[in-house]
User: What shape does this take?
Amino acid sequence: MATKPLWPPRTAPEPALPERADVVCIGAGIIGLATARSLSRRFGQIDIRVVEAEPRPAVHQTGHNSGVIHSGLYYKPGSLKARNCVGGRKRLIEYCDRQGIPYEICGKLVIATDPEEIPRLDELERRGRANGLAGLERLPSERIAEFEPHAIGVDALWVPETGIVDYTAVAGAYADELEAAGVPLHLRTRVTGIQPRADGIVVETTAGDFEAGHAINCAGLQSDRVARMAGLDPDVRIVPFRGEYFDIAPERRNLLRGLIYPVPDPRFPFLGVHLTRRVDGSVEAGPNAVLALKREGYDRGSFDARDTWSSLSYPGFWKMSLRYWKVGLGEMARSGSRARFGRDLRRFVPELRDSDLMPGGSGIRAQALDRKGNLVDDFAIETSPRMLHVLNAPSPGATASLAIGDTLADRAAETFGL
Assistant: This one.
């Protein structure tokens, strides 16, 4: 079944901005769209608008997502990530069934390739069981081939509830629902300023200014800047990390049945270089994680002076860099290196050759970093007068988007008195 194409760029004029709206959602990535959808379904009598700088929804983090339906294995029990992922995954699958969006629950194998990784695998299993995952199975080395015939390791954890989907199709379905409900998307409309008023705020945009009673900032890579426009001095700054991928040659895709992941380093919110099968049948390897010199720059040569200065002038960046400089150098050395990617992947799939790796795509992660140099690992939501700000929506943000949308609608009802 072919994936439904995401909204094409508009050729017709954009809908005119109203003189006033009750709530404006800033950003039409999957979180912004899901939030507007939740608000519309709960408060259908209010005027909701979505503004987006790009010519179509889901251009950045959503549109470059690897497409994994996360199970909830990694997240600290009781955290926002854990609660929203486990409930959101079930709702996402039901939503895809209703909308006819292709997906597959193919399962994932997390493989320890060194005995020193086994205690970390034990912790993953503990978290998964605490988060209510069903069917988790610990596999000794001799049983790994039952699930992935071409994989090896000293121990492994089978996670059957992990799946794959095209999140651009999911975001497109959210956008279609919004339009059907009379919630317009104002595309090519970049927010340039936010000014307080006695009875609301003025949202200044490249398409003109309009008044809103309240706003929810779901701007992703630009979320900290939108927060500062609103007068908030957030405790975090967005530091962009580029993740680079290789594609596995079509004739070698049979080396993988589902998804194969290493045991992650608990110091980082990144999961390490892994193998992911996608719903279109392709297989990708990656990503690494290197500092991006442009928040919306997907090529290694992309550069923006303002974005670079924003990262390098932030004390938290240097505190993080001093703490993890060896890891950072390793990620930089692997950037674009077929040989280094191949070496890391052969730890668990030894038959994979360097020649099987073809240049693939890339994505930018909007990583929130605090002033002490800590990589913020959970959802971060702050408030300013008449506004909510989503300042960190890491993985599993796409998996949990319906649940996060409801969480933000609950916060809006409480904060704004809707």
In short: Residues 80-99 form the longest helix (20 residues). The two ends are 41 Å apart (CA to CA).
